[in-house]
């Protein structure tokens, strides 16, 4: 059984405070990478000749597109890892608040 402590809750608050800028930066990086994928696909599509489906296929499989998609995937992974950790810390704070509220009312948990 895990003990819910004020010290651990304070660490969670500190983590949230210290990582908010990093979270914003990772979100921006992910959105920028996703936009880059779209722009590269569009540029390759316009530059190629042939039918619509052929140009779509060429744009999807172009080395620059594949590289941009990998950057997007990496950015999304980094963002999601931090988001999950922040969500966990937020839940810990909520549990601490609930337990602390019960203690303060005399309903010791």
Which runs of at least 5 residues are low in confidence (pLDDT < 50)? none
Q: What overall geometry do the principal axes of the alpha carbons give?
A: rod-shaped
Termini gap: 13 Å
Portion of residues in beta strands equals under 5%
What order do the helices and strands come in, and which of them pair?
Elements lengths: L5 H42 L4 H10 L1 H43 L4
Q: Descriptors for this entry?
A:
3 helices; 87% helix; rod-shaped
Give a brief rundown of this model.
The chain has helices at about 5-45, 50-60, 65-105. It has a domain at about 25-95.
Would you kindly provide a written description of the structure presented here, covering whatever features stand out?
By secondary structure, the chain is mainly alpha-helical. It has a domain at 26-95. It is built from 3 helices and no strands. Helix 1 runs antiparallel to helix 3. The longest helix has 43 residues, at 63-105. The protein is rod-shaped and about 75 Å long. The mean pLDDT is 93.
């Amino acid at each position: 059984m895990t003990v819910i402590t004020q010290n651990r809750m304070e660490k969670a608050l500190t983590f949230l405070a210290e990582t908010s800028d990093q979270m914003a930066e990772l979100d921006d990086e992910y959105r920028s990478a996703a936009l880059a994928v779209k722009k590269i696909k569009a540029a390759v599509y316009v530059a190629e000749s042939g039918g619509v489906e052929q140009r779509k296929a060429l744009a999807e499989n172009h080395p620059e597109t594949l590289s941009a998609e990998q950057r997007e995937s990496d950015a999304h992974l980094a963002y999601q890892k931090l988001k999950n950790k922040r969500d966990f810390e937020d839940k810990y704070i909520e549990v601490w608040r609930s337990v602390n509220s019960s203690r303060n009312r005399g309903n010791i948990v």
